[in-house]
Amino acid sequence: MLVNQNQFNEQLLLKEVYKGNINAYETIFNTYWKRLYLYAFKVYEDESLCEDIVQEVFINFWERRESLNVNKLENYLFKSVKYKMANAIRDLKFTNIHLSKLLDLPSDSSQENSVEYKELQQEINSVIATLPDKCKKVFIMSRFDDLTNAEIAEKLNLSIRTVETHISNAIKHLKNNLSTTSLYASIILMLT
């Protein structure tokens, strides 16, 4: 059986980190820091916050190295950033721009098959169904049909500004009508 060279190197690095080898830790840090930062920045465009979150993940990784049992380093690091982001968003003022970005993040197929994902999707669909007709149509075209604001404006014979207003109103409506738990759950699901 062939072993992926990256997985093999990753396991060697992890073993060295567990032993306290700072050079192995620095290699992991240098390999993943930028990707983790960009991942966080997609959700919350605040350089300082994103840098802090990634730094906290690496500090925690180093401090807990003796008690960790990580199988896939990349998965562990990205999930750690995801949970730190969810906590940070819970503690910060969450804007419509952030919710919009979260709704735009792609989801993977494993999430779409989970019970939690299906329940969350049902709640989101129920809230979307309560939007005024024109607002709902614009929002669905934007978020589910992947049309640009200009394309929507042209198809519906509206101004781009009107399309933007409908999308903004829909996002506010979602934010105000989703339960707090569902809003946070949607953030976590959409970050994975």
From TrEMBL:
Q: Which stretches make up the RNA polymerase sigma factor 70 region 4 type domain?
A: 122-174
UniProt domain RNA polymerase sigma-70 region: residue ranges: 29-93
**Does this entry carry the keyword Transcription regulation?**
yes
Keywords associated with the record? Sigma factor, Transcription, Transcription regulation
- Tell me the protein family, please: Belongs to the sigma-70 factor family. ECF subfamily.
Q: Which Gene3D superfamilies match?
A: 1.10.1740.10, Winged helix-like DNA-binding domain superfamily/Winged helix DNA-binding domain
Question: Can the keyword Transcription be found in this entry's annotation?
Answer: yes
- Pfam families, alphabetized: Sigma70_r2, Sigma70_r4_2
Tell me where on the tree of life, at the top rank, the source sits.
Bacteria
Alphabetical GO biological process terms = DNA-templated transcription initiation
Name listed for the protein in its UniProt record: RNA polymerase, sigma-24 subunit, ECF subfamily
Any one Gene Ontology molecular-function term assigned to this protein's record: DNA binding
